[in-house]
Amino acid sequence: MFCDRLSGQLAAQEEKRKRKKTGQLNGDGLPRLLTGDEFYNRVVEHQNACEAEKVAQEDRRKRKDEQSELLTEWRKAETERKKRNNARREAYRGAMRLWKEESEVAKRERRRVAWAKPKLGKMEPQAPKPGSERGEGASGECEGLGDEGNDEDVTDEQSDGNADGMDGESAEE
């Protein structure tokens, strides 16, 4: 039983060594006929593999650069979205302070509050982070960031032109 396990471990180590890219064509220490067809074919395969690896590495580097640019743009858009949401919250808090003051005055005078309690409304949602889904390609990610300008137009239309960030319905009641 011990010998079987040891034999399996030894076989796994040998396979691991074979898979490891050493960059040497004559790495096992045995003599080779350098002008033979077999060795020449191994040299050609090795050169092709090295060139393919360089191309793949360059492609990965380009994709990483594109991804970092997309992520930088996303971060800028995300900070702007957070600023807009914080401004909306501050406007809501100011409206709530005014409403509470009015509510206190109405309680003292034993009457109803003249206007409805302000509502925060919906916050602007977070745009999807580029590269978060594996199925999307680079073109899909660019389109996602490009549509963000349209999202701003939608939020402006939803606010009904109120600078205080309250819904039009709650202000009219």
What layout of secondary structure does this protein have?
Elements: H1 2-19, H2 37-108, H3 138-146, H4 148-158, H5 168-172
Helix fraction bin: 55-70%
Alpha plus pi helix count: 5
- The H/E string reads HHHHH
Q: Which class best fits the helix and strand makeup? A: mainly alpha
Average residue-wise pLDDT: 78
Number of E strands = 0
What is the first-to-last residue Cα distance? 84 Å
| Rg (CA only) | 33 Å
The outline comes out as elongated
Q: pLDDT under 50 segments (min length 5)?
A: 135-173
Query: Strand-residue fraction?
Result: under 5%
**Biggest β-sheet description:** none
Provide a quick synopsis of the model.
The chain is mostly helical. It has 5 helices and no strands. The termini are far apart.
Note down, in words, how this protein is organized.
The protein is mainly α. It has helices at 2-19, 37-108, 138-146, 148-158, 168-172. It starts with a helix and ends with a helix. The relative contact order is 0.09.
Keywords:
single chain, 173 residues, mainly alpha, elongated
